[in-house]
Structure formats: structure tokens, C-alpha cells
Amino acid sequence: MTRLFTLLLFAQLLAGLFMAAQFYFLTLQDGVRDFQDKRLKSAANPSDALSRTGENLRLKEGQLYNEVRKSHVQTSRRLYLTYQPPDGGWNNHRIALENAIILAKLLNRTLIVHPVASHDMAISLRKKRLAQWKNLEKRSGINWVYNHMSDRDLVPISRVLDLGRIRSIVEVFEVRTNHLTFRDEFSHLKWHYVCHSDALGFWVDSIPAGNESVTRGIAFVPNNSSRSVRACPVETVLLKHANKPVIRRILEELQNVQADVIYLSQDTSYKANVQFFHMKDALKAQQWILSSMWLSPHVYKRAFQILAILPKPFNAIHVRRTDHRVSSSEAPSYWLHNMARQNFLNVSTALYVATDERDKNWFTPFSKAGYQLYFSDEFFESSGRSYDMDIRGLYDQLVCVHAKLFVGSKSSSFSSFIYRSRKEVMIKDGLILSHMPIGWLGHRLRSS
Ligand SMILES: Nc1nc2c(ncn2[C@@H]2O[C@H](COP(=O)(O)OP(=O)(O)O)[C@@H](O)[C@H]2O)c(=O)[nH]1
Ligand SMILES: [Mg+2]
Question: Of which family is this protein a member (predicted)?
Fold first, then answer.
């Protein structure tokens, strides 16, 4: 186990240097001010890293989380934790943020939050320079499009979420610039890079001493999607022969890190998949997420304007199309069949349709089946901004939450947020199992 940690810490150091090199390459390419020199000087000291591997932090039962313990590196200066937002839509970003809230809370660090990127712009940027992104991904990992988004295609996260709610869980610092500018502005600080892919394993909060053998009973299916396989190329090579799943312990690995900024790089935060050792801690952490993820008062106001106009009662569907691999291949019959199973028409003919599909003809079978359709673009003028669709998506989500019956899209994190907010989730032992990025380690054991 100690050897594995040594290996992981060494991997992080290499990853830090490696990431710095990637950014150097990009900043040169795009004419963004170079911050490579400062980054390299501030990279973690290898002896710091190696001395940490000798420490065996032992945790007593029930010691955590009622009050997050002050780690002994906590000083009067602010310590930060932040994350790489994934290339993807708002709800992919939300999942990365939810996991980052958990890590920041466990490590008692100020969470740096980032703007939400225009999904339409991300798609068109990717298409325009596909060969370049693919080349970068092959050599240097993922999520390049978000980092290169310009400020005008970004929405401050405080417009999307009620940051006051997150602040009741962790301290928050809001970044409103694009990611390269953020990294430049924080480059005088000392950074600690963390990279982990769900092709390799997952995170636990901590494993109390003497309980290591528990991990042998864990069922793990590696995510072999090209995105997960390409994430963290350095760690993937170094951990090629390590036993899978690679289980990384948040507290043991990160609590004593002295760097100013812990940076969850690549998809580390998006795919963190944190499992808690104690069930009661998993329950508490799920509560942290539920109580912090509230859309902003401004979004509520606009959504309630739509709700006031809609006939009552009404039902809703979310139809995910455009770039979604799984859902875009479904025909209208997928939704119509599921709606019939729930007897939608017995409740109401009024059907609110949340969708990224621009072609209204696609919905003709729904009208033919007897539904009266309502779309959010009928209620609001386009603002002409690239993130129009994303902002309307927030109203769509809230309206769907308040519908009598709802059918969403398969494997869509947009639908997931709606199901979770409607409390239509799988529950076991009082814990939410679906539409929730974190859980209890006990539910991952083969016998459970
Ligand atoms: N307005 C609107 N936009 C949507 C809808 N569904 C998807 N989108 C757009 O597509 C993106 C979806 O990405 P994301 O939220 O990550 O969900 P996922 O890709 O389905 O898991 C959003 O940010 C929106 O831009 C919808 O029902 N209404
Ligand atoms: Mg997405």
C-alpha cells in the first residue's frame, strides 16, 4: 500500500510538471501570457511529497465531519481547492462542482468555483478545430475546449446557482474569467495537481487503519470510454500494473498537502465517484450536495413566470438530442411509450417539452398522440448570446421539476438533476443510489 502511495505521489509530481508543459505549449500557441516559469518554480517539492508517504494518518471512528477537523497544515492564510470544469454542458459541470464541494469540505479548504461554458459554443469550437483537439487529447489528456472558451461565452456561476447555499457548506471564491486567465492570475501560488481517472478506480474519504482488507471485496467496472482512457496519461502509464481498482484516499493523500491550491485536473472531479467508509458520513455528504445545489433566485423567478402561464396540471418530458450519443438515437416512441405507461393523458394533455432539439417537426408524433405542447423558447426572446440555450435549460429544469409527471432522457445528467430534484431516485439504507455522484463504500461490496 505504501509503495502504491509513493507511486501515486510521484505520479502527481510528474503530472504537475507535465500539465505545466501542456499549458506552456497552449499559451504559446494562443498568444496567452506565459506563466510557465512561475508554475515550475512553485511546483511541489519532491521531498515534501516523499516525506508525506511515510505518514500513516489514522482516523478513529466518528472522528470526522460533525466538525471538519482543522488539519495541522491549516494556517491563517487561505488554502484553496479547485477543479477543471469538464468539456460538456452545465450538468456535467455541476457534477464536477458537487464532488469538489465534498473534497473542499473534507479538506477544510476554500472552494474556487468557475463559470459555466456555452454548450453550443463548445460544440462549434470543437468541430472547427477537431484535428487539433484530438491531437492534444491523444498526447496530453482532455478538456481543452473549456479552457479556451472566451469570457463572452461564459456565464458566472453565481447567475446559475445560489452561491449563498454553497457558502453554508464551504467557503467559496468565485472566478469569473476564462480558465487560462484564472490559472495565470493564481500562478504565483503553490499548486498541487491531482489526476485520477475512473478507468483506474475511485476515491474514498478514508479507510480507518485495520480495515484495508475491506477493499478486496469491492466490485469495480473500469470506465473504458475513450474520454476516461485518455484522462491522466501519466498516471495511467504509472499505474498500468497496479491492482485495480486503484483506491485513493482523500484524507490520507491530501489533508497534509501544503500547497495553496489543490487542483483536481482533467476529469478528476467530474468522475471522482467518492465513496464514504461510514454510512453516516455518506448520508451527511449527500445532504451537503442536496442543500448546496439550488438554482439562483433569478432563475427561479423566470421559471415561475413560465409556471404561472402553463395550464394546471401539466406533465413534462426532457428530450436530449444534438450531441448526446445515447439519447439522440432514440425515436419519439421511446418517450411516448414511457408516458403511456405512466398514464400521462389521464392527468393532462398539456405537455411541457424541455429539449435541445431545434426542429419542432421532430415533435409532431406527440401532437398526433393528443398532447398540447409547450416549449420554453415560446416564452422568452433570444438574447443573442451563445449561452442562451444553457440559460433556458435552467428554466426548463425547474419547470420539469414542478410538473405532475415526468419522463427524461437516458444517461443525461440534465435529466438526472430533474429526477433528483423531484425525489424520483433509488434509495437504499436511506442513501440515494441514483443521480447522485457520491455514496457509501458498503454498497460497492460484492455481497451487498
Ligand atoms: N434549453 C435547453 N437546453 C438543453 C436541454 N437539454 C440539453 N440542453 C443543452 O445541452 C446541454 C446539456 O448538457 P448537460 O447539462 O451536461 O447534460 P447531458 O449532456 O444531457 O448529460 C445544456 O447545457 C444545454 O445547453 C433542454 O431541455 N433545454
Ligand atoms: Mg453533457
Answer: Belongs to the glycosyltransferase 68 family.
